[in-house]
Amino acid sequence: MASRGLREVPEAGEALKLARRLARWGDERDWRGTDPYEGLSASRRAVAPLKRTALGRRLLIQAVKRSPLDLRPALGISPKPDSASVAWAVSALARNGFLEPDEADGMLSSALDLLDGLRSPGYDEPCWGYHFDFQSRVFFYRRGEPNTIATAFAGHALLDAYESTSDPRLLEDACGAGRFFRRFVPLTHTDDGAYFGYLRDDRSPIHNSNLLVASLLARLVSCGRDDADFASAAEAAVRYTTARQRPDGSWPYGERRNLAWVDNFHTGYVLDALRICADAGIGGPEAEAAWSSGLAYYRRELFMADGTPKYYPNKIFPIDAQSVAQGIQTLAIAARHDESCVHAARAVFGYALRGMLADDGLPIFQRRRLWTNRAPHVRWVVAPMLLAITHLLALGQAPARRAQGAERVAV
Asked: How far is CA 226 from CA 176, 276, 289, in A?
């Protein structure tokens, strides 16, 4: 267990100031803002032909994401709240540690109402999607269509809020998200474990989405709920991903030829989710060993010595806000089990202060080799950084809110 908290080092004041700034900025806007992947929300007729093919859709998304100029006003893309952003805000506000309780309580209540309003329509079980259509290398899905990433983050947020407030309705909604996974997202069985897909009826073998589902089910089991064989499903999902860890400790994004890359923030997602499962007793010694090996790889191959995150093991640029925030969070979570990660988490936060803040004090999206994209995207920049700082502030400290003696653990 880490013995030295962040408040004992000079960065503590900067962390508190940045967390307050991010929380108030998001709350004032009802967590509405831009997103790097919302290109298909363009409403201008000129781009309609691009939306007719998978290649055209991917080109439009990448043009909006990568442009040094903000194309959104010209394309008719307006700011929207996103369920993942709001979920991360809920998780951060439930932990708090940076606002007075009354202010945090008010923000938390508003964010929970907003999260509930963003549920995907047409389902009895709570589930969530993104606020934009999206085309990936694997599939296309519509705005609001539930996916495992958004739903898992929302489920974890509900559990964080439940552990803070003891409101049983929040636990019940989180259980409903677990039941959604068991009812609608296939658990594809293999010779060594099974995996959850990314979307309803989808069977894409993607490790971070598989383990995010498992981690939510594991937390529900720890809360005394095993409504639809949550424990056995989580065990199977953990076995699948641990069995496919590479000898160097890494995981590919997914188990298809076109999904074989390794990157920074998806590795962080896998490690956080695996840590939750191991802490809940899901996966046995194999889960613990896989986490330790994966953490060693993450620290060795995906960060520079000064805390700068690399995008890929063999490529630094673009230096991405999601990699920065996820690095802070994953290393802070790991510090509960490996004290050396305290320094590593602080080093990544130190890089964030040096290299990822705009003149207005908000974090920026990406630093590329020749130019910088300073957009403070809500889902990709503001909300994940806020949650990361709450994990950092919690190092070596008792929970700052009314935790009722419960340890808070979430992605």
From this structure: 11, 16, 25
22-49: pLDDT as tens digits: 999 999 999 999 999 999 999 999 999 9
Which single residue is written with the structure tokens 């047409």?
122
* Domain total of the chain: 2
Please state the pTM of the whole predicted model.
0.93
Same domain for 232 and 155? yes
Closest CA to 23 of 334, 378, 354: 378
d(CA 71, CA 50): 15
Find out whether 301 and 253 touch, Cβ atoms under 8 Å: no
CA 47 – CA 40 distance, rounded (Å): 9
> Residues with Cβ < 8 Å from 149, sequence gap 6 or more?
84, 198, 208, 209, 212
**Dihedral, CA of residue 303, residue 306, residue 307 and residue 313, to nearest 10:** -10
Q: What tokens were used for 77?
A: 């893309």
| 237 and 93 in a common domain | yes
Q: Which tokens in the block code for residue 347?
A: 């080093």
- Supply the range of the domain harboring residue 70: 39-76
Question: How does pLDDT run across 157-175, given as a tens digit for each residue?
Answer: 999 999 999 999 999 999 9
For residue 189, what is the enclosing H or E element?
strand 187-190
pLDDT (0 to 100) of residue 397: 58
**SS3 category, 140:** strand
pLDDT < 50: residue spans in the chain? 1-7, 398-411
Residue 372: φ, ψ to 5°: -125, 135
pLDDT digits (tens, 9 = 90+) for 125-134: 999 999 999 9
Tell me: do 137 and 45 sit in the same domain.
no
Q: How many CB atoms neighbour CB 17 within 10 A?
A: 13
| Of 325, 321, 322, the residue nearest 374 (C-alpha) | 321
